[in-house]
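Appendix B. Raw example, untouched.
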Amino acid sequence: MAVVLLDASRPDMIPAGAVALLAETVAVTEEVHPSLLWQLPSYELVGLVEDDGSKTLVSSNRDHPAVLERLKCGESVIEGSTLPGGKLLRAVELMDRLRRTGPWEQLQTHDSLRQYLLEEVYELLDSIDHGTADELRSELGDLLLQVLFHARIAADSAVDSFDIDDVAQSFIDKVSSRTPGVLNGEHANLDQQIDDWDTAKAAERANTSLLDGIVTTQPALVLVQKIFERLARVDFPIAAVSPSLYRVDIPFRKHAVGSVEDDLRRRAIVLMNQVRAAEEAAAEDGVAVRDANTWRKYLGMAYEEEVEEAAVEETAAEETAADETAVEDAPAVDNTASEEIDDLDNLGVEELFSEDPIALNKKGKTKKAKDVKVPEVPGMVVREKWSAEGE
């Protein structure tokens, strides 16, 4: 006779070539899904009845002893094409069984699995850098276990429960909304795809902070880098960022006084709070913070009033054109104005920037002055002289 192998992900789908073989009594292995058994005219369960090989054997497990014995005898195999991702359903079923019957699995919570999740991520990263294809596949499987486990735990929750299908739908919804052009065949342009993704993310964060979605429990260096990336996109003034965030100094000591990691994270969170406070203040005034001068205003720093007003007025372009036309008829600058400019020229850079406006919590306005040159703020604005004394 023959062996009919079913796809475990579609247990009630019968290969076309096997339909005629199922019209009479067949032998089945124990894992065949009941949905198919109910549709069979008659069947015998292998193990309860000795398999003499006289009946067609139906199974969804190629490694079952009864199947292997039939194949050893040279019986023909009839099977349909497998569905990509079908084994994920078997993984979901396995996780469900472990959660219901496993003593250890029953005790686990989202919080108790935190350490394992973090370990699996680091092991996966290590396999990407140094491992073989087999090791990478294995580590991906370990990470998948964490996803399945957390989803199964969430399904047991009495409040706000969800399951693995909800997790999959979340993935589908998010990726579909962020890559519409690619999925619809409108384009295959890398820059356009990145723009679509960023635009969709910005829309998801509508009327909220630009820092939403940044996880503060991630490694501190990654946290600071992510914050800087977000702020750089919106013309955030670098002068408002504490120089202590630009670098990490680890003292060479026998006994550490504190955690450098925790200290950097704490300072990063302080910056995040300042940004959110500025956003809230701007929102109360109905202002969208899109340029450095507006950021300076709502951060409590000195800002140029004329620039801020021009950004709000709809007639700014017309006023600029009118000013350019009137230049020829403009009176000469009087001596008083020249003396004020000279006074500014005589001031040193250190005197101009000796005070931290955010730390002093002062708001001020600056006057426009010509010919005053201020050097650009470098990427590293603080240099400390290292000394072994006191170490």
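End of appendix B.
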